[in-house]
Amino acid sequence: MRTHPKKKVEIIVERPLLPAVLDLVDGLGATGYTVLRTERGRGQSGAWQAGDLSGASDRVMVVVITSDAVADRIVERAYEMLESYTAIVLLSDVAVVRHDHF
Amino acid sequence: MRTHPKKKVEIIVERPLLPAVLDLVDGLGATGYTVLRTERGRGQSGAWQAGDLSGASDRVMVVVITSDAVADRIVERAYEMLESYTAIVLLSDVAVVRHDHF
Amino acid sequence: MRTHPKKKVEIIVERPLLPAVLDLVDGLGATGYTVLRTERGRGQSGAWQAGDLSGASDRVMVVVITSDAVADRIVERAYEMLESYTAIVLLSDVAVVRHDHF
User: Fold this and answer.
1) 0.90 cut: is pTM over it?
2) CATH code of domain A4-95
3) C35: nearest CB among A40, A75, A92
């Protein structure tokens, strides 16, 4: 099976930042994204969990599959945008079958 | 710690296709799978989100850890099966500790 | 964009084991973790799904981004701790932008 190398970008952010992250992803040329809900976690700003009454600390994970070039731009811009937040930005290698989709 | 190289296959599909995907995974010799719920996303067919009244556009992510050979078969068959849908099929490298499980 | 290689550890366990896994992760020097809910799956002990009345077979996925050294310790200790359970422990490569966070 012929596959094509792509990048997976994963961004874990507080929910209020999600619209800005999706705008960034859309604006930089990614053809799509998937958002996963998270349940709880711990990071630099301490422990958090979904369903806190404030809702402020609820986290989501945005997954984007894209080319090396677009992934680089997303990671760079996400880093700038999220620098003062406790966001996590991850980059990894994946292979896809449908080259044309991403 | 001795680890063993395996493949991770990730398939994101509309929920109505999940039974067929799991049948395919089971039938090709994978020893297991994990299904994650997704919250929203955007792809070739536009934006979607969980909880749409129709339910039709709800997506799930199927994660399978398996050998190179089985992963290749799953990716190939999933591609054929899902060709006319907006599914995403990803292949990546992982290491596991328990060789015998996968 | 300058990135730094790190390890992603993913541990899928039954929910009752989650506190022990998080204690292990915290105790071995990881700076954080994210917990994702799963919906259903199949493994060595058969099929399971979230929302079973007993609650016993509900699975969660713990994601940890950390250094090679800490990842090795987590994988080794998790393996010992979870040996008699149907847990899955995965190790893979990721790149991060903020070196200092992990």
Assistant:
1) yes
2) 3.30.70.120
3) A40
